[in-house]
Amino acid sequence: MIVRRRKAGTIGVNLTSMIDVVFLLLIYFMVATEFKTAEESFPMDLPLRDYRQTIQLDSEPLVIFVESAGDKKSDFRVRLDGPWDPVSSIEELVLFLRSNKAGRFGASGLFTETHPILIRPTKETRWGHTIAAYNAVVRAKYVNITLDEPS
Length: 151
Prior knowledge:
The protein has three helices and four strands; from the N terminus they run H-E-E-H-E-H-E. It has helices at residues 15-32, 90-99, 127-139; strands at 62-68, 76-80, 117-121, 145-147. A four-stranded mixed β-sheet has the order 2-1-3-4, with helices on one face. Strand 1 (62-68) and strand 2 (76-80) form a beta hairpin. Helix 2 packs parallel to helix 3 (127-139).
């Protein structure tokens, strides 16, 4: 009897179909993935470290209300819109504006000389009283002053 020996076959994995599956998965993930160009960043304006740190407000105007209370030159009321201490005279207005003015070389204050200031008289306010308030702002050395329509 002739015994034939079988040749031992090689055991292996068919790589052709595995490579096809890998390429199909690669194409699927490339199509389904959302590529971003860059991460989003949020700008932050951090103040400079200084022992006299200056904090400045936004460019929202400082509103000064002027109201006539009588016929004399000094008979009028001045009121500031916002969380400020009450101002009862023109001299107090000048003092408030000067004390809250930020200088160029690090002097602390809330307003720069170009901060918008809006003078808003009432309909009954005399023209001289409005001009007195305007002159007070000019004496405090502010340059961006606007006279509003009477309200």
